[in-house]
Specification:
CATH superfamily of the largest domain: RlpA-like domain
Distance between the termini: 220 Å
Largest sheet: 6 strands, mixed, barrel
Radius of gyration: 66 Å
Number of domains: 6
Number of strands: 28
């Protein structure tokens, strides 16, 4: 302990401190340099590690691509880092919590809002589809065949716009009596018909106004008008339209009134077709009376009480007067024909009767039994079955309207032969002898020929009219064979 003096000790501590200070001064710069070097190396290592951890990501948003770098580990962190926000309805190629790797491509399709209105009930829907049709399918909204949509299904989705759908409903549609079920989503009758490609003509008739509302279960009746070429009373033909389907109903529809005698062609019950011709002929009938003078005839009768060559007027002749009722027919104001509808004898014709003497002045009178044997009725010269007295007679002609040339027995009417009789009085097919007129054959009948009445045939209507009415005739009924 005595080795070291106090002075030495102090001197030794001072020396150590001096050495350290001296060493610091000499090596401080070296230490600082080493420290800086170490820091630089660490920094470089860290930077290298950091650079090695950086990722390059291709982000495609609605088809637009960009390359971004990140050190984040998940998609959500990456999107937050680059301020990219998403909605639940957006379409992402990977989930938000998924890890991302260097070189990944991430696709985001942004969902757009659309107001979907179905039968006026609205709600907001989102879609990432490009067309309206694809969007409806993604929403599981089925569009019926007859439903109405405000925009075409092939059009682009209206971002922020509206897609309105009106559901079609059934309607009973009757066209010209034929009914079928039709569907429409329109609001009015007119729009519904237009959607069915049905055009309503000016003259068509419809059960509901075109501008009226149409609802489910409604019945719409449409009667289409037909054009008809109409001629009334011979006037100018015009085109008339009607929804009726028979001639008679159409005339009522047009307010055409028919007279008792008017004629319509085709008939009123005839069906109508397009552009058919319908004619209404106005028929007017007028009756007039006219007097016809019937000249009397001179009838010569043999008189055995008068000497041969002598004559004597037994009865003076009187002209007859017949009042004829004539019906004149006019069609559309023009004369067409006339008919004899009635005749009445105003004055009976009385023939002049002249007795002609046949008496031979003889000295000696002889008799022959053969002459008497020729007849069974005295002096007529023929046999007969019976005699009709007080018979009345008229005349007729085939020139009269409604009178034909064929008789009731099938023969052809012949002047000088044919008469009409009552078969209950004179058998058909038998010959008769009419005093003053000679032989005639019962070949015909007539509705007015009853009892002891006959109708004598003449070819000329004038001769028949001139005949008038005769009464008091005597007829000998002979038989089926002419004497």
């Amino acid at each position: 302990m005595g080795i070291f003096t106090k002075e030495d000790t102090h001197g030794s501590r001072s020396s150590s401190m001096t050495y350290a200070l001296r060493w610091k001064r000499q090596n401080g710069l070296q230490i600082l340099g080493v420290a800086l070097f170490v820091v630089a190396v660490v920094t470089m290592v860290l930077l290298g590690l950091y650079a090695k951890a950086e990722k390059q990501i291709v982000l495609v948003v609605d088809g637009k691509a960009q390359t971004l770098t990140t050190h984040k580990g998940s998609l959500q962190e990456f999107l937050n880092e680059h301020s990219v926000s998403t909605k639940p309805q957006d379409d992402l190629s990977m989930s938000l919590g998924a890890s991302i790797q260097d070189g990944d491509q991430i696709s985001i399709t942004t969902a757009v809002p659309v107001t979907l209105a179905v039968d006026e009930k609205k709600e907001t829907r989102y879609t990432t589809e490009k067309t309206v049709g694809a969007a409806l399918k993604s929403w599981n909204v089925k569009l019926g065949e007859f439903d109405k949509i405000s925009v075409p299904v092939a059009s682009a989705v209206p971002n922020g716009g509206e897609v309105a759908i009106t559901t079609a409903f059934p309607v009973d549609l009757t066209i010209d009596g034929k009914t079928e079920e039709a569907y429409t989503a329109e609001a009015t009758v007119g729009d519904a018909l237009e959607s069915w490609d049905i055009e309503v003509g000016k003259h068509d008739k419809i059960s509901k106004p075109l501008e009226s509302a149409i609802q489910e279960g409604d019945e719409v009746k449409l009667n289409t008008a037909l054009p008809v070429e109409l001629t009334v009373g011979g006037e100018k033909t015009e085109t008339a339209y009607t929804t009726e389907r028979t001639v008679g109903e159409a005339l009522k529809d047009w307010g055409v009134k028919l007279g008792e005698n008017d004629k319509v062609y085709p008939s009123e019950s005839n069906g109508l077709t397009e552009n058919i011709s319908v004619s209404v002929n106005r028929i007017s009938k007028f009756t007039v009376d006219q007097e016809v003078t019937i000249p009397y005839q001179t009838v010569k009768k043999e008189d055995s009480s008068l000497l041969k060559g002598k004559t004597k007027t037994v009865q003076k002749g009187v002209e007859g007067v017949v009042v004829q009722t004539i019906e004149k027919v006019y069609q559309n104001g023009e004369y067409v024909t006339k008919h004899l509808v009635d005749k009445e004898t105003k004055t009976e014709k009385q023939n002049e009767i002249i007795a002609v003497g046949t008496k031979e002045p003889v000295v000696e009178k002889t008799f022959t039994t053969a002459a008497a044997a020729n007849t069974s009725s005295g002096d007529k010269g023929f046999e007969y079955k019976k005699v009709l007295t007080g018979v009345s007679a008229t005349a007729y002609s085939s020139q009269e309207p409604g009178i034909g040339t064929r008789t009731a027995t099938g023969t052809t009417v012949t002047e000088g032969r044919t008469i009409a009789v009552d078969p209950n009085v004179i058998p058909l097919g038998w010959w008769v002898y009419i005093e003053g007129y000679g032989y005639r054959k019962a070949e015909d009948t007539g509705s007015a020929i009853k009892g002891k009445k006959i109708d004598i045939y003449y070819d000329s209507l004038g001769a028949a009219l001139n005949f008038g009415r005769k009464s008091g005739l005597t007829i000998y009924v002979i038989g089926p064979n002419k004497p």
